[in-house]
Amino acid sequence: xxxxxxxxxxDDETALLEELCDFLSWNxxxxxxxxxxxxxxxKLAADQAITVVLTDIRMPLMTGLSLTSQIMQARTDxxxxxxxxxTGHGNVDNAAQAVRAGAFDYLRKPMALAETLTVVRRxxxxxxxxxxxxxxxxxxxxxxxxxxxxxxxxxxASGPQLDLSRESPPEVARILSHELRTPLIxxxxxxxxxxxxxxLPPGLLNECLQDVQTAGKRLTEIxxxxxxxxxxxxxxxxxxPAVAAQKVLENLLADYAPAFAHAGVKLTLGPVASGSVRxxxxxxxxxxxxxLGNALAACRAKGGHVExxxxxxxxxxxxxxxxxSSHGMNEAELTRAQLPFQQVDMSLTRSSGGLGLxxxxxxxxxxxxxxxxxxxxxxxxxxVAGIVLPGEGGNPLQKA
Length: 400
Known about the structure:
The protein has helices at residues 14-26, 37-46, 64-74, 92-101, 113-158, 164-167, 170-181, 184-195, 202-230, 245-263, 281-300, 331-337, 358-368, and strands spanning 5-10, 29-34, 52-56, 82-87, 105-108, 242-244, 265-272, 276-278, 304-312, 318-324, 372-378, 382-389. It has three domains: 5-130, Rossmann fold, CATH 3.40.50; 162-230; 242-394, Histidine kinase-like ATPase, C-terminal domain (Heat Shock Protein 90). The longest helix is centred in the middle third of the chain and has 46 residues, at 113-158. It is an alpha/beta fold. The protein contains 13 helices and twelve strands.
C-alpha cells in the first residue's frame, strides 16, 4: 500500500523482532528488519523511502546510540529519518544519551504495542514533514536561481549601451559596482553552502532564503531602473483619463504605509485640493513612488515625517507633492541629486543605497505626462518634491 509507513526494525532478539514485525505490519507499517547496526545501515542506504528506524540500544558490534548518531550525520532534511530507541535497561543516562544522539523518542521494554505504534506514526509524520519542508525550500531556491539567471540576461542585454568609464566620473562606476555586487552576496553564498552539504538549522535557512529573496528583488529593481533609463520612453496614451488627486494619494498611502511604518518613518495624507488631472495613473504612481523612496531614505536615519499633498497651482495646474522632514539640501546638493548616477553622499559607506536614478526617472516621467518635476529644499527644514500636472484640454486644473 502506498500509504504504508516504511520502517526499519533493528534488534538482535529474534522473538521480539518477529512479534513487533507482525504487529506493525498488521497496522499499516512496511517493515524491513536487521539484526545489527551494520546491516541496518546497509538496508537504510538501499531504501531511501524509510522514514523511521526502531532500534534496540544494546546490540553487539554497534550500539543503538552509535547507529542513531551515524544515521543523523548521514541524513539531511531532504531524506529525513527519525530514530526511536528501545531498551530493557532504561535509566536517566540512557535517555540523555538518546537525546544527544538525536533520537526522536525513547521506549522502555517491555513496551505496550499500541504505544509503540503511536510513537512510530508520530516519528513518520515528523520525517515526512521535514522532507516536505526541504522540498519546498529547494523548489523556492530553484525559482530564485532561475530568476537570477533571467536577471543576469536582462542586465547583460542592456549593459553594453552604458559606458560609465568614459561618460561618468570614476566614483560612479564604483557606486554602480557596489550596488550590483552587494545583493549578489547572499544569492551566491547560500547555493555554495547547500552545495557543500551544510545542514543549516531550519530557522537560519529560512532567514537566508528571505535574504536571497530580498536580494533578488533589489537586483530586479536595479535592472528595471537601468532598462527604463536606457530605453526609449513609450508614447503616452492619448487622451489620458481624468484621475482624482484624492485617489492618487490614497492609493500611494495604502501601498507605502507598511514600508514606512517598518522603517519608523511616519507617512500621512496632508491637504488635498479638490479636482482631478489628466494623467496615466500607472506612470504617475511609479514616479511618485520614486519620490517616496527618496523621502524614506532621507528620513530613515533619524525617523521623521513624510506627507503627501495635492496643491492647486496659480494660473492652473496641480502639484502632487511629497514633503519630508529630512535635513534638506543646499543648492549644490540639489543640483547633484537630480543628475543620473549621482547622490548627495557618493561614498560606499553612505547610509542609504541606490543608483541615484530616482529623481532623473521621476523627471522623465513627469515630462512624458505633460508636466514637470519641481523640487524645493531648505537645509535643516526638509524637502518638497512635486510633479506638476496639467488638467483637461490644456486647462491644468479640472474641477471635480
